[in-house]
């Protein structure tokens, strides 16, 4: 073929590709995208934090062996907050949250007044086990010894459409002190004029005009529920049990990165993690659908004996 014709064909192909990419969404939030996003050194934050001591006994007596204690974050779950029931932005799991007789519509209330600052918003929330799996484990193995997280890939830990009484009617948390007393369990600060919202009651309704902040507050509420046991919700705890040489993540606390942090997956894909509130760019989702990966901190050390004697942390 004529070299000039080849170059022209390549130019046409490139132009068509650019037009198609501009016409469609930046990316689809699918399992492959989520798994690839877990390869984030910033979110992983791998550190050597101490030394573990083990008593190892054999035929010729006992000795004390040591192993390195490490701490890092693990993407335990994908937390979605979305306005339209059944429209989880993670396309493979969206059928899990379809409408049912007790959970039908979604969306926001409106007064048709511009500048309305008491707009009632509603969002569904799903907490699904992160699908990173093999990709994340392979990435983590390059850092050294690795700790297991609490999440099981694709496991539904919370589906708000099955938690109707608590999620849509705020029963019984509407009467909790955290929901009634200003200043308790809030995301952001009133004094700094950066209050994103309140954690309680942990349901789907809140007031405000910023949809991104509303989605973040709803995601925080969902994460708050699943990282605690015995909550008055329909859910499954996303928690691991501590054992010798293994320190599991505890309850998620708003604004505290030492309990968990968030990686935005949509409407923009981030390769860093943060807590709410934050000052980074906040893109409003056109369909009111947001998703974050919830990364949680774990510490562990390799077993090198029958009896765990303890550990020493280093700064």
Can you put this structure into words, describing what you see?
Helices cover 21% and strands 26% of the residues. The chain has 315 residues and is of the alpha+beta class. The protein has one domain. The strands form three sheets. Strands 1, 2, 4, 5, 9, 10, 11 and 12 form an eight-stranded antiparallel sheet that branches.
Radius of gyration: 23 Å
In terms of DSSP E residues, the strand content is: 25-35%
What are the low-pLDDT stretches, counting only 5+ consecutive residues below 50?
1-26, 111-117
> In whole angstroms, how far apart are the ends?
66 Å
> How does the major sheet shape up?
8 strands, antiparallel
How many domains make up the 3D coordinates? 1
Q: If you average the pLDDT, what whole number results?
A: 88
Q: Quick one: how many beta strands?
A: 12
Number of helices: 7
- Decide which structural class fits the backbone: alpha+beta
Identify the overall geometry. elongated
Can you give the helix content as a percent range? 10-25%
Oligomer: single chain
* Helix and strand pattern: HHHEEEEHEHHEEEHEEEE
